[in-house]
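Model: Ready when you are.
Researcher: Fold this.
Model:
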Amino acid sequence: MIKYFCLSISLIAALLLVAGCDRLDNQRIPPAPVNITFATVGDWNVQGIGGALDYKRFIKEQLLPPDYHYSALSATGFGGILLAGDVNGEPVAYDLSCPVECKRDVRIFVDAEAMVAECPKCHSTYDIFSLGGHPLSGQAARDGFGLRRYNVGPGRNEYMIVSN
């Protein structure tokens, strides 16, 4: 009897442990094409980011930023692109759409004082500078919804941002 009781307790503990594991869903935002290129190092220096903790938003429909030259091949994801420099100065890119809201026009913004990205509607916050878009608070943290990431890599001369 005690053997079955201990086995039951062990099984329940194992199930709780597995159920309690944090899982990140960073695929809630629908896949959408991304193509932002910087033809020269000079273009990157002017239109890209300057280094650690710097950021810039790219939204083709709104021609943001105004100094970026969009082409017919340019694409900025589902809701736009947030290009940021992580704490080491490496460029990272996220979709601007909040994964809780899943709408093109509900875009996260960077709270420069708190150094987090925040959704203006659900008020979820995300770490964009050191934790790869992981949720920090709000419904996104409760449900495990992270920001969709995009690849940033070498282009012809400097960087390009493309879909996963």
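Researcher: Now this one.
Model:
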Amino acid sequence: MGRIDDRLKTLGLTLPPPWTPRGDFLQFRQEGNVVWLSGQVCEWDGRIVCEGPVGDGGTGIEAARDAARVCALNLLYTLRLACGGDLDRVDRVLRIGGFVNCVPGFPWSPRVIDGATAVFVDVFGDAGRHARTAVGVAGLPGNAAVEVDAVVSLRAD
């Protein structure tokens, strides 16, 4: 078990069970030391854990932040696949993109996506700090409240 696996255990974070993508796409694409991770919705064990829209009497910000954390754990699961099972190969998280299924005019998408950011920073420390986009959208697959994608660099082998 590596340093990052130990960190996950210390944080009480569990990666999801194996899952199948909802569409015809690659879970990740690697070019050199850079890995692009496909967007992950807040799905756990085949079930959307938080549905949208967020705001105005619908799903609250805290529930949506928790959903963003689930997205980040799904991304870590996929990243582990890209790393051949060794998350210690991660050099840094370069960027995440966050999408919040929300009511029109919802101003708190960045606050929601902070849930995913916190996972990456908690797990990887300063190497988890990243550039980011957080936008509100009219809908997501499975009516999920949140979807997050990421770009990560790996250490050279």
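Researcher: Key takeaway?
Model: The chain has one domain: 3-14+32-154.
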